[in-house]
Predict the 3D structure of the following.
Amino acid sequence: MINKIPRNIIRFALLALIQVFVLNNIRLGGYINPQFYIIFILLLPFETPGWVLLTVSLLLGITIDLFTFTYGFHALSCLIMAFARPFILDIFAPRDGYEKGTLPRVYYYGFNWFLKYAVVLIFIHHVSLFYIEMYRFTEFFRTFLKVLMSTSVSTIFIVASQYLVFRK
Amino acid sequence: MRSLLRFIIKHLFPILFVVYALFSLFLIHQYNNYHRSYFVNLVHTTQGVISERLANIDNYLSLKQENERLIQENLQYRNQLKKNWNKQDFEQITINDTIYEQRYKYIEAGVINNSIDKNHNYITLDKGERHGIKPDMAVISEKGIVGITKTTSGNYSTVISLLNLNFRVSGKFKKNEYFGPVTWNGRNPDIMLLNEILHHVPVQKGDTIVTSGFSNIFPAGIMIGVVDKYEIKGNFYKIEIDISANLRNISQVYVVENLYKNEIEQLQQESGNE
């Protein structure tokens, strides 16, 4: 547990830096901006207490907000995603629950489980983010298309990282 | 009291969520004031330093295009040199400095951060208060308008880009002076909209739209773009303008200071004519 906290702090900082200085400058087709930093919330250990989960997600969102001039957008969407996480984990739980000492990664629970878990949470995050940004429903379908495209690209990034970076 | 505490501890997760969500909503709604706080300024300065390093690399890689652009610009100025023009009319009045007083001052600045894919796009410049940049000054490039400065720190400043849902400028037809607000709709980074033009005004594809100078920020007659498409909707036209400044690859801009701005605003306030 002592080992986990500094490791997560370093991961927090690295992911925020990568998001702000590298990924925010990538524009696929002019619209898609991969949101990779939310992998931090996905990879928190199963036994993370609820208040830690919410607080850390809020801080992560605010950090990204400060650098992208979008006060509160990322904060609120990360918060909604963190709030949904325990329920999503419950829904996709294996028959005998999550084993102690394991982490929510491909290595422990397989590709199918991780993909389902990641897609649902990333989708929740992106829906919140894009609709908070629009702040109205008049362009519902155009925004929804943006959500779908960005969700798929973010998912590809996050699942690929399971094989390249977060292997174990 | 104790039962209230027990209730909070038991339902900590949802209660905390609601509290944090209210906090985030507060941030979103304070959007326009929050950035003034000291902390954000500090973050922007730090980010400015890092972005500048990255922009340096980027600038180096685009040196060739940049040189070509400068040659073109030089050419343009060379053509305007007095010695290249023949004096045709000898009965002109001599212009004296007591008649002409400088009204607009230009400051050159480099772009170190820019975005075009959001609904609220901002540009960061490498000049700030120390170089004379203040909030609410016009930003233009040699091709046309770019934005309005928003906040400044010592060495950096941020600019509300044309491509921002909060951006608004008064534009007019160069040919017949009909004017209306120009805004962006958040869709295409090459297109802006000219609104409130009545349907009897003659409009053609290719008409030039320039700034009207009514806003006290932009000088009159700066290029905005040319009419790309138009259709009549009710009493008004819906006019799409092809932006002439290409915000996808902008690296040098000029910040314009209106030296009479305070005087004009004061006068308008006194007469209650906002």
Observations:
- Chain B is about 30% helix and 30% strand.
- The CA atoms of residues 132 and 211 of chain B lie 23 Å apart.
- The first helix of chain B runs from residue 2 to 10.
